[in-house]
Amino acid sequence: MLQYIYVMRKVSMTKSLVAVLNKFDESNDALSVVRLVNEFSHEMNRTTVYRILKRLEESKKLHSFIGPGGLKWYAKTNDQIDGVLQETHPHFHCEDCGKIQCLPIDLPVPALPNHEIRSVSYLIVGSCGRCDD
Ligand SMILES: [Zn+2]
Ligand SMILES: [Zn+2]
């Protein structure tokens, strides 16, 4: 009986994982944690969404960064754009449409003697090509 429950949970976890990952295929834009929790509020609870995002990040399918308002944002890891999308690429936040996209540019992390770097976020703010016309 216990094993049966375990298997059921496992299947639904995989389905949820795919559903979350598919959300990122609809566009190449990054999505905030708040938006993801809202979009899946009918299918899964907040804790499940967080757990799935953590897993997808660990398996390098997604990467995260801190966006406007200190919120955590996630984007699909795509190494198909202009070769390799580096781990330290910048993100562009359009203030007009609110979208955030990954920029296929490598911005190396400067050497900081006597400092331990735990994460790096480059956020460029402006107006995107879709809004600029
Ligand atoms: Zn825009
Ligand atoms: Zn990115």
How is the largest sheet built, in terms of strand order?
1-3-2
Unreliable residue stretches: none
As a percent range, the share of helical residues equals 25-40%
The kinds of small molecule bound in this structure are: zinc ion
Topology overview:
Blueprint: H1 2-23, E1 31-32, H2 33-39, H3 46-58, E2 62-66, E3 72-76, E4 91-94, E5 100-102, E6 123-126
Helix pairs in contact: 1-3
Bound molecules: zinc ion (ZN) (2 copies).
One zinc ion is lined by residues 63, 75, 89, 91, 102.
What does this structure look like?
There is one protein chain. This protein is an alpha+beta fold and 133 residues long. 32% of the residues lie in helices and 17% in strands. It contains 3 helices and 6 strands. It has helices at residues 2-23, 33-39, 46-58, and strands at residues 31-32, 62-66, 72-76, 91-94, 100-102, 123-126. The strands form 2 sheets. Strands 1-3-2 form a 3-stranded antiparallel beta sheet. Helix 1 (2-23) packs across helix 3 (46-58). The longest helix has 22 residues, at 2-23. The structure holds zinc ion (2 copies).
